[in-house]
Amino acid sequence: MHLMLLGAPASGKGTQATRLAQRFGLVHISTGEMLRQACVEGSDLGILAAEYLSDGQLVPDHLVVELVLDAIDRAPGGFIMDGFPRTLRQAKAFDTMLQQRDLPLDAVILIEVADCTLIERGTGRRIDPVTGQIYHLLFAPPPAEIAGRLEQRDDDSAQVVKERLYIYQHTTSEVVTHYQQQNLLTRVDGSGPPDKVFDHIFGLLSLNPRQAEQ
Ligand code: AP5
Questions:
Q1: Bridge partners of 186?
Q2: Residue 123: which of 79, 99, 90, 159 has the closest Cα?
Q3: Which fold would CATH assign to domain 2-113+158-209?
Q4: Which residue ranges make up each domain of the chain?
């Protein structure tokens, strides 16, 4: 299965992609996670990307497309894209990649959440550096024994979350239109609790006979 999750910053893409990847045995390809990892490792890519990430700006298309190209070639059993594509140019490059490999997308799910909720989710997010698990101080509180080791992402300050939201609204909306025109896009209300959002997405995927066979 080849899936894509679209949605604004902190809409719940990572949370749902993790669950869907486990449920369907897919490789979870998160460009944000790969870029953050490159920054931690101090690779050439990480050095180039660091400033864009901390300011909430998009990393140049060619760098991200190169990363994704490599990642899909290492996911022969299927993938779920999280955070890519973010621009029309990335979407078109991705279409070409998939056509060349004869890998049609099965579904593109757009998770929709109100802006005020996005800011609340982004600023309250905390990550466990040991397991990579995503928590939220209010909505998905961590067990007490690990609370002390949780980290906040550099780009989760209120100011940077707002900047990322502005960029999403002015750039990534073109990507939504792109997949809508291909009749691949399904909108999902992401405002409920994670289990409810997951059940909704799972139900949609199970209804599609092509995916149910896989
Ligand atoms: P990236 O890591 O992709 O960030 P993002 O798209 O802004 O999305 P987030 O990771 O912030 O949120 P999410 O939707 O995954 O939500 P989550 O599940 O964590 O990108 C970061 C940066 O990398 C970009 O700004 C850019 O610089 C660069 N980059 C990445 N990809 C790029 C690309 N393709 N091109 C160029 N640059 C790129 O949930 C958020 C919080 O809410 C969590 O605390 C969670 O516990 C909670 N939560 C989740 N679901 C629910 C729910 N249903 N109810 C209540 N709380 C919930």
A1: 109
A2: 159
A3: Rossmann fold (3.40.50)
A4: 2-113+158-209
Testing ligand 1's pocket by substitution, the residue of 4, 5, 6, 13 carrying the most ligand atoms inside 8 A of its CB is 13
Residues 6+ positions from 6 with CB-CB distance below 8 Å = 13, 108, 109, 110, 111, 172, 175, 176, 179, 185
74 catalytic per annotation: no
Question: pLDDT truncated to tens, each residue of the chain (214 aa)?
Answer: 999 999 999 999 999 999 999 999 999 999 999 999 999 999 999 999 999 999 999 999 999 999 999 999 999 899 999 999 999 999 999 999 999 999 999 999 999 999 999 999 999 999 999 998 999 999 999 999 999 999 999 899 999 999 999 999 998 889 999 999 999 999 999 999 999 999 999 999 987 644 444 4
Please confirm, yes or no, whether 13 is among the known catalytic residues. Answer: yes
Please give the C-alpha separations between residue 175 and each of 37, 88, 180, in angstroms, as whole numbers.
25, 5, 9
Q: Does ligand 1 come within 6 angstroms of the Cβ of 86?
A: yes
